[in-house]
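Minutes, project huddle
Topic: does the predicted pose make sense with magnesium ion bound?
PN asked that the exact inputs be recorded in the minutes so nobody has to dig through chat later. Recorded below.
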Amino acid sequence: MIIRKTPEQIERMAAAGVIQARCLRMLRSKCHPGITTAELDEAAERFIASQGAEASFKGYRGFPGSICTSPNSMVVHGIPGVYELKRGDIISLDVGVTKDGWVADAAITVPVGPVNSEARRLLDATRQALLAGAGQVRPRNRLGDVSAAIQRQVELEGFSIIRSLVGHGIGRDMHEDPQIPNYGEPGKGPELEPGMLLALEPMVNAGGPEVRVGEDNWAVYSADGTLAAHFEFTVAVTEDGPRVLTPWHEE
Ligand code: MG
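Predicted holo structure (tokens), as shared on screen:
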């Protein structure tokens, strides 16, 4: 069942979203060669606590970090640790913020210094796919319109949508209905209604769409070892169209 939120509840989520987006921008500014993913995790934890909020991922199903840090061929769910960023890496930073019981979830993939042209294209395509999907978040559209817009943008660039990982509804819980595949058919799926909150998150491999889970039982990697990218917004369906509650793309 998709839980619709009242305008007041959406404002509470937007308050979590403002903190979330500021956290991502702060982390992005720290992604230089030599910093470890554990240092990024500590910076995020400190920042979120300083805002009177909590890191939603900490302890979620036993996850040990405050954020997920997933470099290069790692798609998502990387546990922060000793890994040191190097020039030419790309790294997905995924952050959930809980404020007064409401969750905002978003992610960006950041280049560390100059990256090669394939990495550049992969980041651009995945970000554009998220924006295209978010553009479809309006009343009377169907969820399939969102999924199909994401898929079209990614495949236009010759990259692969990962099928086995999906976006999700969000609210008091980080993961609510519906599941949101990043592929699909226009006109199919549930109709979007004002008050629905969607965490859209295209996860894209430069090579084939298959993934594998790492030895820590958390990290997900592209199966063929090619680069992977991940961008995410929490978006509200409003009468006026999409409202991005985690505006990391605005400076
Ligand atoms: Mg998510």
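Observations noted during the meeting:
- Residues 105, 168, 199, 201, 232 surround magnesium ion (CB under 6 Å).
- Residues 7-244 form a domain with the Creatine Amidinohydrolase fold (CATH 3.90.230.10).
No decisions taken; revisit at the next huddle.
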